[in-house]
Amino acid sequence: MKIVDAPYIVGFKDKKKDKIIKKIKHKAKADGVYVITSPVITDGIMDIYQYSQLLTKFYDNIRDDMYIFGIAKGKKEAKELIVNIVQDMYDAGYEFDVKGFFGI
């Protein structure tokens, strides 16, 4: 998993944000954390995963190609974060080009 340079983050205090990013980079456990990623199936524009799910063996080969666009403390917050990302993409003229919006 690769985290984009400026991921959207919601639900964490400033000190905790850096710790969560560090845990994700080191593939360490982080309970209650949800991530917004590039889609596994190419038909979508983004997926939501409970972060701990991505640490399972099933995702070993898949997660190397995934980008993390957002990090949220809870599933409800993750859904709201996707709405914010899509709105910002649209406002910036990227429509549904998530990778272009994040400079990938």
How would you explain this protein's 3D organization?
The protein is α+β, with helices and mostly antiparallel strands and 104 residues long. It has one domain. It has helices at 14-25, 51-54, 75-91, 98-101; strands spanning 2-10, 33-37, 47-50, 67-73. A 4-stranded mixed sheet has the order 1-4-2-3, sandwiched between helices. The longest helix is centred in the last third of the chain and has 17 residues, at 75-91.
Q: Which sequence of strands runs across the widest sheet?
A: 1-4-2-3
Question: Portion of residues in helices?
Answer: 25-40%
- Which descriptor suits the 3D outline? globular
Order of helices and strands: EHEEHEHH
The number of helical elements comes to: 4
Q: Over all CA atoms, what is the radius of gyration?
A: 13 Å
Would you count the extended β strands for me? Answer: 4
Q: Write down the domain tally.
A: 1
Distance between the termini: 13 Å
Main structural class: alpha+beta
- Output mean pLDDT: 91
SSE arrangement:
Elements: E1 2-10, H1 14-25, E2 33-37, E3 47-50, H2 51-54, E4 67-73, H3 75-91, H4 98-101
Parallel strand pairs: 1-4
Antiparallel strand pairs: 2-3, 2-4
Structure described in brief:
This protein has 104 residues and is of the alpha+beta class. It has helices at 14-25, 51-54, 75-91, 98-101, and strands at 2-10, 33-37, 47-50, 67-73.
Feature tags:
104 residues, alpha+beta, 4-stranded mixed β-sheet, 4 strands, 36% helix
